[in-house]
Amino acid sequence: MDTLSIRDIIGPIMIGPSSSHTAGALRIAYMARRLCLAEPRTVEFSLLGSFAHTLVGHGTDKALVGGMLGLDTDDLRIRDSFQLAREAGLAFSFTPEPDAEYDHPNTVDIRIVDADGSEMSIRGESIGGGAAVIRRIDGIDVEVTGEKTSIVIRQRDEAGVLAHIAKSISDWGVNIATTRMYRERKGDAAYTILETDQAVCPEIKTAIEAHPAIRDVRIIPGDSATGVSKDDAADVEAAQMRFDELDFPHGAAMLAFCERSGMSISEAFLEREDALAASLGYASDTDGYLDEALAVMRQSATRPLEEPLPSMGGLIGGEALKLSALRKLGGNLCDDQLSLAIAYSMAVLETNASMGRIAAAPTAGSAGVIPGVLLALQDSRGFSDEDLKRGLACAGAIGYLITRNATVSGAEGGCQAEIGSAAAMAAAAAVELAGGTPAQCFAAASNALTNMMGLVCDPIAGLVEVPCQKRNAAGAATALVSAQIALAGIGNLVDFDQTVEAMRKVGRSLPFELRESALGGIAATPAACGFCASCTPGMSCS
User: Fold this and answer.
1) How far apart are CA 125 and CA 36, in angstroms?
2) Is residue 467 reached through a cis peptide bond, with omega within 30 degrees of 0 on the bond before it?
């Protein structure tokens, strides 16, 4: 992604069970739909890499169809997308191709026939945390992220076309952020893809299409589409300079800024968010977003304590209620704060696995760690919601640095990248809420990453259920232990940035079977294979 915001780390707010395989898959299909010039009528999905192995278990199939219907990632109707598609006259099919070649483990090829009979082929990748990229359109390599408003232009490759496109856009006061032209060979068909800082009106599309070499123009509204006028250009430029100062490339830069300014990590990251919004020409609503994220976290963490939520795959459901009952009976082996963190974190995974609404933090599979820790601290130590929002901002800062310099995707880096990152984020947040220094926050995050280093991603039957639910509880416990050590003033021989780099290298060294494929680790045991539809009962996947 070009620019990460807190919404990319504490979020997206989405329907479970997987940020990469549910929200990211939906995002690919949603962008594919926006590339259609008429209503899609037939869609064929070919699933590659880990998508081929976790299609049904992660709700990828329902999400892809939901995206083609134009549903948002947090729309509960995703669970019923097949029926909605049939009612809308959209035919769909799925073909897993586990042996096909791919560049990213979460890849899908989509062939669309629209109402006018036009065909289009698209390759998309889900790159982690709910983000997605379109990599290929009709056989031509491209890059469309959907982060900014994208204008996708199919044209003949000839002189003067790019100048015409640029003029058509600038005449309406819209600023071009990036421009790329893709072609197979000179003088043949080509695609020009532009990202803009503002929303694109229909008149711009009409103006571009006036050139005889332009075949068609498609608009994909971005996540941060705005309406900046020419009069605001100077303010935006000044804000961009401020953002450049605050767009911390690594932990050392953020820590140096905090120590120089006297700010906490949450304050520094919120300053960055405000500068990012201003640089894009809109007012920041980070506080409102954190209110929403916290409300979703609380709902997902508390409902299963009273009402069991059976999972889509049938492997979990009711665990949080049992933990709540044990606590009420006074049977806790852990102290009350840790017992609450365990119950809350496992409850979120029940909500997630039932395709309920959760806030990925940083992913759906690790969504229970941060609310588990923060809500437990609120109950045991009386922190306010405003305090918890500070904690979310601090956690977001740590997650941003990990995402920027490594990965939070289980398909790329194993469970260490998901649960490990979530534990690091929660540990830093706990330290800040307890009055620790920014240096201690980074030390706590390093502790958690170190303690989770090498953790593999091995979901039984490809479901985000087992061992994911219990690992969220373990992540919450690790976060609290890591925070306690840091608050005691115990430092680390290896700093945060080097720890993140070590985690990245370990993730790259893990074999495919141990990175969310459900083909290794605990998922490959005979008992686990008994829950996998593609396995012979009693036989190991390996």
Assistant:
1) 18
2) yes
Q: Tell me how far apart the alpha carbons of residues 463 and 532 are, in angstroms, rounded to a whole number.
A: 9
Q: What are phi and psi of 477, to 5 degrees?
A: -65, -45
Annotate 492-506 with b (16+ C-beta within 10 A) or e (fewer): beebbbebbebbbeb
Q: What is the pLDDT of residue 297?
A: 98
Distance CA 294, CA 372 (A): 12
Residue type, 279: S
Q: Evaluate whether 197 touches 179 at the Cβ level (below 8 Å).
A: no
When the pLDDT of each residue in the chain is averaged and rounded to a whole number, the result is: 92
- Which architecture does CATH list for 286-528? Orthogonal Bundle (1.10)
Residue with tokens 């240096």: 439
The pLDDT tens digits for 303-338 are: 999 999 999 889 999 999 999 999 999 999 999 999
Q: Tell me phi and psi for residue 3, to 5 degrees.
A: -140, 120
Name the token pair of 187: 């003088």
How far, in Å, CA of 221 to CA of 195, rounded?
10
Q: What is the pLDDT of residue 533?
A: 64
Provide the token pair at 320. 């949080």
525 phi/psi in degrees, rounded to 5: -75, 155
Backbone angles phi, psi at 409, to 5 degrees: -95, 125
Which CATH homologous superfamily contains domain 1-145? D-3-phosphoglycerate dehydrogenase; domain 3 (3.30.1330.90)
Structure tokens given for 355: 């395709």
Any idea which architecture 148-222 has in CATH? 2-Layer Sandwich (3.30)
Q: CA-CA distance, 512 to 542, in Å (whole number)?
A: 12
Q: Burial letters for 238-249: b for 16+ Cβ neighbours within 10 Å, e otherwise?
A: ebbebbeebbbe
Q: Side chain identity at 62, as an amino acid letter?
A: K
Please list the residues that pair with 133 across neighbouring strands. Answer: 125
pTM score: 0.84
Is-contact 458 541, C-beta < 8 A? no
Distances (CA, A) of 471 to 34, 354, 476, 522: 38, 17, 9, 13
Cβ(467)–Cβ(316) below 8 Å: no
Phi, psi (degrees; rounded to nearest 5) at 122 = -140, 140
Ranges of residues in the chain whose predicted pLDDT is under 70: 1-2, 54, 223-234, 533-542
- Tell me whether the omega of the peptide bond preceding residue 40 falls within 30 degrees of 0, making it cis: no
Count of residues in the chain: 542
Rounded to whole angstroms, how far apart are CA atoms 245 and 247?
A: 6
List the domain boundaries for the chain. 1-145, 148-222, 286-528
Phi, psi of 272 (to 5 degrees): -60, -45
